[in-house]
């Protein structure tokens, strides 16, 4: 915490308002980073020599404004701006996040071999029953979960994809090892649902909150369908941008 | 109701299953149209000379499959396929709906003159405080509400827009009367929220269901920003398609 601001009890401005302005200034200057935890009420109260109720009133006002958000049991956080997620021919998670000066992360949370049902067979244009490898991933921005994704590829075409993904932590890199130098998005379908219990846990959102569903199919340079993906995205943390 | 199917009590297939198959066939053939109300349990029971419990079991099975949906107090409906809504440079509601052999509809539900706040001024690239005309519309597909929209234009540029809209029931036509022969989408931003009480009433969805938020700005042929819109769409009734 910086020490610039001193509460002025004779200024004709309520002390809680002065504290709210101080928090606002620290957020604006980046001293309190977006997405980070605010100091506790007690810490702020001690910093200014005021009581906790005064601090609480300031925090309540800023929460109502959407600058802060309470995360039950974890504290008060500086609201992060939603990730702006452009959908273009080459939509790459890491590049998108990095270009916004944010830190991408991700992990493989599961995998399976599945027979293509009618829906998957349709997306990938393979016969029903074709063996597919499914990768389940969790994508994170600045340490906050953003999306849970499942991606399916033909197992016979990418026999080492799981190992390659584990070694590179990138589907783009793993597909490249599998001989696909580049891929482009054919189509994305967007809908919304309420989060289910599993995704709520993974995304760290409350039950009853909406998730955006993004379904997409990717093509290799020859125009062949190589991957179908279905991502569930915490709606409060993203804004999808469709440029013309 | 067609009279093709006769229940065969000696066929070794439970009667409720035969009734379910009959409903399924009627839906597939279009006799029971998507979005329409199914005949009542009593009507179906009388049609086949079975009791209502048998019909109820068939309906329950089809509801579990997603082919039928119960609408409390209104009856059982044939589930409508979500509207497929492509976002392209020229996204026109009526054309999109008509191309899917569905019936578009709409109405003006409100209008106002507002001073541009910072957000609207930014979208339309006009000074804060500029007088804007806001049109609130409800768009309907096959008689079912799909989206509630608000659109803002500069009042000074389109002084007769409200009258023109009322006469044509089309924003595209009204803008054309205002001298804009054509317009293209510059950008669309998509997010999701829970429906609010007003929109739940207009969209005829339950509180706690998600709506997709589509924000877009349109350009005239000279590339000038002429309209900003913010639509809230019943998520269960739409699938947004972003082609490459």
Measured by DSSP, the beta-strand proportion of chain A falls in 25-35%
Order of helices and strands of chain A: HHHEEEHEHEEHHEHEEE
- The total number of structural domains of chain A is 2
Order of strands across the widest beta sheet of chain A? 4-5-6-9-8-7
CATH class of the largest domain in chain A: Alpha Beta
- The 3D shape of chain A can be described as elongated
* Number of helical regions of chain A: 8
Radius of gyration of chain A: 23 Å
Distance between the termini of chain A: 43 Å
Query: Level of helix content of chain A?
Result: 25-40%
* Average pLDDT, all residues of chain A: 89
Unreliable spans of chain A: none
Keywords (chains A, B): DNA-binding, Transcription, Transcription regulation
Domain HTH gntR-type (chains A, B): 13-81
Protein name (chains A, B): Phosphonate metabolism transcriptional regulator PhnF
Pfam families (chains A, B): GntR, UTRA
Describe the structure concisely.
Chains A, B: GO terms for molecular function: DNA binding; DNA-binding transcription factor activity. Chain A is built from eight helices and ten strands.
Note down, in words, how this protein is organized.
2 copies of one chain form a homodimer. Chain A starts with 14 loop residues before the first helix and ends with a strand. In chain A, helix 1 crosses helix 3 and helix 2 crosses helix 3. In chain A, strands 4-5-6-9-8-7 form a 6-stranded antiparallel sheet. Chain A folds into 2 domains: 64 residues, Arc Repressor Mutant, subunit A (Orthogonal Bundle), CATH 1.10.10.10; 159 residues, 3-Layer(aba) Sandwich (Chorismate lyase). With 244 residues, chain A is an alpha+beta fold. The radius of gyration of chain A is 23 Å and the shape is elongated. In chain A, a hairpin with a 3-residue loop joins strand 1 and strand 2. The first copy, chain A, has 8 helices and 10 strands. In chain A, 30% of the residues lie in helices and 34% in strands. Chains A, B: Keywords: DNA-binding, Transcription, Transcription regulation. Chains A, B: One of its GO terms (molecular function) is DNA-binding transcription factor activity. Chains A, B: InterPro entries: Bact_HTH_transcr_reg (IPR050679), Chorismate_lyase_/UTRA_dom_sf (IPR028978), CP_lyase_PhnF (IPR012702), Tscrpt_reg_HTH_GntR (IPR000524), UTRA (IPR011663), WH-like_DNA-bd_sf (IPR036388), WH_DNA-bd_sf (IPR036390).
């Amino acid at each position: 915490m910086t020490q610039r601001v001193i509460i002025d009890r004779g200024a004709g401005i309520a002390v809680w308002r002065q504290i709210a302005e101080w928090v606002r200034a620290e957020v604006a200057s980046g001293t309190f980073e977006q997405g980070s935890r605010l100091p506790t009420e007690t810490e702020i109260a001690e910093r200014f020599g005021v009581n906790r109720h005064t601090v609480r009133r300031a925090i309540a006002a800023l929460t109502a404004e959407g600058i802060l958000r309470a995360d039950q049991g974890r504290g008060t956080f500086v609201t992060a701006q939603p990730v702006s997620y452009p959908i273009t021919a080459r939509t790459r998670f890491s590049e998108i996040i990095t270009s916004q000066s944010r830190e991408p992360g991700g992990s493989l949370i599961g995998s399976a071999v599945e027979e293509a049902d009618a829906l998957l067979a349709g997306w990938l244009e393979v016969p029903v029953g074709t063996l597919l490898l499914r990768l389940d991933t969790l994508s994170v921005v600045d340490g906050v979960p953003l999306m849970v994704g499942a991606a399916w590829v033909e197992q016979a075409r990418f026999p080492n994809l799981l190992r390659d993904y584990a070694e590179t932590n990138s589907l783009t890199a793993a597909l490249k090892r599998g001989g696909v130098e580049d891929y482009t998005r054919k189509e994305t379908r967007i809908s919304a649902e309420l989060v289910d219990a599993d995704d709520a846990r993974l995304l760290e959102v409350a039950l009853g909150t909406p998730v955006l569903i993004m379904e997409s199919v990717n093509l290799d340079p020859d125009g062949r369908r190589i991957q179908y993906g279905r991502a569930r995205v915490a709606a409060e943390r993203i804004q999808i941008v469709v440029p013309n």
